[in-house]
Amino acid sequence: MKNQKNKAGKIDADSRIWLTIDNKSFLGQGKIELLEKIKEYGSLRKAAGEMKMSYRKAWGSINKINELAGKPLVILKRGGKDGGIAEITEVGEKAIIIFNQLQEEIKNLLEKQTNSLEL
Predict the structure, then answer these.
(1) What is the mean pLDDT of residues 112-118?
(2) Which of 25, 26, 59, 78 registers the highest number of CB atoms within 10 A of its CB?
(3) Domain locations in the chain?
(4) Which residues have CB under 8 Å from 95's CB, separation 6+?
(5) Are 45 and 62 in contact, with CB atoms under 8 Å apart?
(6) What's the DSSP call for residue 51?
(7) Beta carbons of 74 and 61 less than 8 angstroms apart
(8) Where are the beta strands (DSSP E) in 1-119?
(9) What is the CATH number that goes with domain 28-110?
(10) How high is the mean pLDDT of the chain?
(11) pLDDT per residue over 35-82, tens digit each?
(12) Global pTM?
């Protein structure tokens, strides 16, 4: 039998990261995206809408994140007729940066490891 060359495309690996606190899901890609949208819009309602997520679900996610962290990553302030505001704290900014750096490092590691794979 002749040695046949691989006809499949390049092999890639993918991963998802979840940070946990006391074995409870704390941050994943979706929650990081929510934090980033809050930072962009300054509003939980606008961030949730942009992500096609209910306000209630977004509010619950933020409360869970803040509770598990033991300090707020997001501060929510009720508003009047124009609605409230949402602010990412310094801790929240740091969490976004660390998560994104970790994700990029893992992506690079997977790419490096799969570059030499052949079927």
Answers:
(1) 80
(2) 26
(3) 28-110
(4) 27, 32, 35, 69, 73
(5) no
(6) T
(7) no
(8) 19-21, 24-27, 74-80, 83-88
(9) 1.10.10.10
(10) 89
(11) 999 999 999 999 999 999 999 999 999 999 999 999 999 999 887 666
(12) 0.83
